[in-house]
Amino acid sequence: MDTVVSMGIHIVDILGRPVTRIPEGQRLDLLKEIRITAAGTAAGTSVDMAKLGLHVIAMGAVGEDTLGDFLLAAMAKHGVDVSHLVRKSGIQTSATMLPIRPNGERPALHVTGANGEFTIDDVDFDILAKAKVLHMGGTSLLPKLDGEPTRDILKFAKEHGVITTFDLVAIERPDLLDLIKPCLPYIDYFMPGLEEAEMMTGLTDRMEIIKYFLDNGAKTTVFKMGSRGSSIAYYSGAKIEEIRIPIFKTNLIDTTGCGDAYCAGFITGLLNGFDLRKSGLLGSAAGSLVASGLGSDAGIVDLKSTLAYMENGEVLPLGD
């Protein structure tokens, strides 16, 4: 079976809904639901890919603490190989508190924790060389791996024939594009949110943004655009071809992890021999399913039911 190495940030999410305010002083508000999940652009994507039937090896860092114990157990429960996650002493596992608003929005309170100590020396290059896909997730929250080390990992992967996919975390920092630009020639599928791409480039026209990243080396851009669906674009000769993918109608509960689920579905599609449009539709279906529950592991059961949802679900009109 083909292997996906999912490398980057590994986070424990603590989520509650619906949150309409933070109580004053030491007062109490009652919620309908509180959950704790494995999350992040590497860990959340790993769990979703495993649910969709892929063989996934996780690479990243967690602490030697109770949160780390939970994260390893939660990922392993879904079939993710966690034997290559390193444990860092004296520092907590990365965690986020997410008070989910009634409309599904998710403000976040985050501790970088062990993700900040993940280095290139923690990467098992022998395993990476044998993988079919490297999914890199978490640039901007991996201070000891961001930039040149990430570029070197991606370059190694391409030299060994590994397909590379790349997602990041939207943090407004002036050097974010400087961290990512050297990596682009080694990225097959560049998969940020469109808002993140706008923030990095300072551009607002989608086709100009697509052209920027393609001209700087990315083979294909895959922009997640929320309610407007997604965009998949690439050069066909001298012309840029764009495929627009709609979202599916769902009972919106929580948008946490929808982008990670899209990546998982898209990668699953590629490894099942789907073309770009069908891979994008599977990504969209996975993301819409996750939005129907609380937490980044909600909604997705397995590949069969996700494909059925993709084939029979109601799609919404594309936004501009």
The total beta strand count reads 13
Taking the sheet with the most strands, its summary is: 9 strands, mixed
The residue fraction in helices comes out at: 25-40%
CATH H level: which superfamily? Answer: Ribokinase
Question: What this model shows, in words?
Answer:
The chain is an alpha/beta fold and 320 residues long. The chain has one domain (3-22, 30-312): Ribokinase (UDP-N-acetylmuramoyl-L-alanine:D-glutamate ligase, 3-Layer(aba) Sandwich), CATH 3.40.1190. It contains 10 helices and 13 strands. The protein has helices at residues 43-51, 66-77, 125-130, 148-159, 176-180, 194-201, 206-215, 258-271, 276-290, 303-312; strands at residues 3-8, 11-17, 33-39, 55-63, 85-88, 95-99, 109-111, 133-139, 163-168, 189-190, 220-224, 230-236, 239-245. Strands 5-4-1-8-9-10-11-12-13 form a 9-stranded mixed β-sheet, sandwiched between helices. A 4-stranded mixed β-sheet has the order 3-2-6-7. Helix 1 (43-51) crosses helix 8 (258-271), helix 8 (258-271) packs antiparallel against helix 9 (276-290) and helix 9 packs across helix 10. It starts with a strand and ends in an 8-residue tail after the last helix. The mean pLDDT is 95.
